[in-house]
Amino acid sequence: MKQFLLLFSFLVGNLVFAQDYLIKERFDPDNFSDVKIDTASSNYHRLKSSWGLNTNLNEDDELISVWGSNLFSISYAYDKPLFKGFHWNFGIGYNWDNYRFKSRNDMMLHDSIGHDKVKFRIQYASLNTGFRLQTSKDYLTSFYLEVNGYFNVKTFTKYTTWDKLESMKIVNSASRLSYVNPYNYGFEAKIGYGSISFYSRYRLSNIFDSESGYRELPRLALGITLEVGEP
Amino acid sequence: MRNFVLILLTSLGFCCISQTRYLVVFTDKVETDFDPVSYFDTAALKSFKVQGLPTYDWYDLPVNSSYIKALSPFIDSLRFDLRWFNGVVVYGKADRMDVVKEFSFIKEVITLGNSGAILSRKKDKVFSPNLKSKFNVFDWQLETMGGSYFKKKNLDGTGIRVCVLDVGFPDVDTDPITKHLFNGNYIEGYDFIRDKPLKFKGFKHGKQVLSFIAGKIDTHRVGLATNIELLLARTEWMLTEKPYEEEVWIKALEWAHKKGARLVNSSLGYSGKDHSHEELDGKTTLISKAGNLAARKGLLVINAAGNEGDNKWKKIVLPSDADSVLAVGGISDDNGLRLKFSSFGPSKDLRIKPNVCALGRVNILNNNKLEIIDGTSFSAPLVTGFAACVLQNNPTLKPFELLETLQKVSSLYPYYDYSHGYGVPQASKLFNEVIFNDTASVVLLKSPNYLKDGYYFLKYKNSKYFGTQVFYHIQAKEGYLKSYHVVKFEDDAASFPRIYEKDLEIGDVIRVWHRGTYFEKFIK
What we know:
The complex is a heterodimer.
Chain A: H1 2-16, E1 20-26, E2 44-54, E3 70-83, E4 86-100, E5 117-134, E6 143-165, E7 168-175, E8 183-193, E9 196-203, E10 220-230
Antiparallel strand pairs in A: 2-3, 2-10, 3-4, 4-5, 5-6, 6-7, 6-8, 8-9, 9-10
Chain B: H1 2-16, E1 20-26, H2 36-39, H3 42-51, H4 65-71, E2 77-82, E3 87-92, H5 94-100, E4 106-111, E5 116-118, E6 123-126, H6 136-143, H7 147-152, E7 161-166, E8 186-191, E9 196-197, H8 205-214, E10 216-217, E11 220-221, E12 229-234, H9 245-258, E13 263-266, E14 268-270, H10 286-296, E15 300-304, E16 325-331, E17 356-359, E18 361-366, E19 369-374, H11 376-393, H12 399-408, H13 427-430, E20 442-446, H14 450-453, E21 455-460, E22 469-475, E23 481-488, E24 498-500, E25 509-514, E26 517-522
Parallel strand pairs in B: 7-12, 7-13, 8-12, 13-15, 15-16, 16-17
Antiparallel strand pairs in B: 1-3, 1-4, 2-3, 5-14, 6-19, 8-9, 10-11, 18-19, 20-21, 21-24, 22-23, 22-25, 25-26
Helix pairs in contact in B: 8-11, 9-10
């Protein structure tokens, strides 16, 4: 109790004598060290834009036409250094993923007719998080290696076929495809310098519902990312 | 796929290429073939005459070309020469430089650093339309320095040549705030990053800075010196900090001197990973030495103190540490006190820094919107505009005298601290012999039970001072400030600012500033 009263009187005493200090600085003349001080901001905010190609690598045969099977994404990324050169990333974005099938009969989602051209598009809202190894604190002058896991939520799907009947072009499309899984996830690895990087993305989950019976799409994509941001 | 990998490897390979930069300093210069009259702009020659400075100075002689020729097999490339340092900036390899060091005509080889920054921060707010009615804010900004005194005296920087070193000056010739300077005031511009005549494009920081030196809109002045002769120099690369900006800054300073500038505004600063606090003595880094040399040669550099107050660096940036460079800190438009980002003084050798301060949160017109922007970047040009008017009033002032004048006419003088320097320059004081009032409006009293309580306290003489700010510091007998404070007077005696005896030693000095009055007490 005595200690409580002592503490109480100390606190009250301090409150009574509180002064409204607007500036209160103490200066130590010996506080001029020869240590180099890195003032680069510790957190980074970046806007990223990626373009890539879905590939047939790691597949038994060439299911898709690579140059017609591109993917785009735009995302915001927050990056926080955990310790020297090692950063944690978190990103949120939106992806457009296209597949163009190579031969007329490779993909028969709706019918068994051999079409002139068949494309499948899926769009996602995307979250990703991972780690980054960076050679210097200033990302604009730094080499880096980044590994992220991603999780996509389906927002839109579309399957389109193009045919030519005599001189008439016939385009059919279907969207809101029920046999496409609502989520998918995977990993991506990036290597880069400054505001440019090259990535490879590997999808672990299946695009199509396993009960649909459709052949699964290639899992590996390669691409390039450009980013702007601060500091 | 093979092509893709090839592209990737090639791109990364390009990224890997980086070279070290050196300043190779020669032992001597050839003194025969230098003609000051043909080298200097007529404005420079006039400036030397007015200031009583010699036109022929060893520092201005060219670098010996035969030395450069002899050096060339040992370097990768030559960037440029620096007459003031009798050397050349080169790219090269360390082992080659070890060989070069042994040559009889080489005095020293200095490895150059990389750590520059423009000293502005993000915009804070954007006002709604009804724009013209808001332009009074520009008058208010200048009135914090007593701008109307200059207007009454018709002082607007006429005849004073000012050089602005910055990152870019987009559309300055057409912007409503700066376009008036392109009807005969603009002399020349040079882009030292691209080594070409300046184009009015790039990042707008330089345009904003220029606005606060010389801008005007309608009948409102944005800067005090609306009729200066203008030189513009681009010395910074915005997207990434190029690793040669410090040397470029020095090169631009030489150019400004050659062109006859009396004032150089630099809202740029150097700190960070290639520098340490120990270098802040004004004698160590090339850029600070150049700032000092500039003053000796007739032009005063006015530099932003830095925006490092709220990060790990905290202190002033280079070259603000130089004793002949006027370092300007930033204060709030709200309470007139240091903004949290404005860098702290003093210099390593305990000289007062920043020297003065000015608004560091200012209104600017940008694309027909009134915005508030932050940074000591904008404090410096406000003072540069002020300095141009002072020089117009007395053109014979040498840089050292001008620096001293600016300090003496500042709001807190002779009081100072390491956040505000001597305060905000005041035009009223320039024309008034009473620089401070020593009939203090506050008193320093011993506590009623001094032997028991052991403290002094500050008390205002008149209750009308309730709510006002009082500045006080304790100076150690060695000359530096042990501590400094700004306190708002409350109305009850218990909250009057206290100075405890335990914090004082014999030889200390307590100095107090309140509402333009000042006193000091020596501890015996």
